Task: structure prediction
Amino acid sequence: MPNKQLIGIHHVSAITKNARDNYNFYTKMLGLRLVKKTVNQDDTSMYHLFYADERGNPGTDFTFFEIPVVGRTYEGTNCISLTTLRVKNDKALEYWKNRFNKYGVQHEIISEVCGRSTLAFKDHENQRLMLVSDEKNVGVPGGKAWGKSTIPDDYGIIGLGPVELTVSRLERTVNTLVEVLGFRKKHTYQSSKTIHVYETGEGGSGAEVHVIEEKALPREKAGRGSVHHVAFRVKDNIELKKWENKLTSLNIGHSGIVERYYFQSLYFREPNGILFELATDGPGFEVDEEFEELGEKLALPPFFEDKRAEIEAKLQPLETSK
Result:
């Protein structure tokens, strides 16, 4: 049977130098909920923090690996160059502009990008971010803002919007998106550069990848404030297995299916070197914590529980209880 279309964006994972400062910005400034405080399963000496809507619905997770020794980011090409976050409407952007002014968050003016009202800004580590209004959006629905945050419900962040890629060879990335992953060309628009838009599933803000070709720059050197990878949504592990078989049949190197406990994953790099992940929608973050207690304690998958004491000893304490 053929592969079903990918549903949309599942999560974006980035790098931070300091988990405490990161937690303060994304929960207290942006009002996201920390739905899982866990560790990088490939290196359990570092935190892996998941920020999202009220319960970490697929398509709302913005995650961070803490690497205390990481250096600065040297921006360039062949990278994920922008992460966007969805809000309900244009009015919400006015709220955020005023909030950023009040607290000294670096930001640009509200402007229209690809037919949507947007507000570009940066976090304390110069992570490249943009708020995107859903007022005119149709397609994959957003999540539900965390009602107990400091942000009024009408203005809260409801998920991830389009992800922007900057690449040195446009045709290589486009071929992967279209011929391998089944994305379709939506349109092209002009910003400071020509941006090519591809979408999957129901389309819309939660299912778009925007691609810029930039040949002149060197490859980006990742550091604090850079993005590690983007993940796309797959319904379940049956579909994920089909994707594994497809990549194998195309002789595309991949990780094989990896059990992440909260979802299953499959990783590969597109030809310009950007790391893509395919991730299942479930089972989700409530598999080991109650909804009301998400993110309050260090959560470890069962296969790490026998090493809990050893893992905790390597981590700096991070207080996240409500």
Observations:
- The mean pLDDT is 97.
- The two ends are 47 Å apart (CA to CA).
- The CA atoms of residues 34 and 51 lie 4 Å apart.
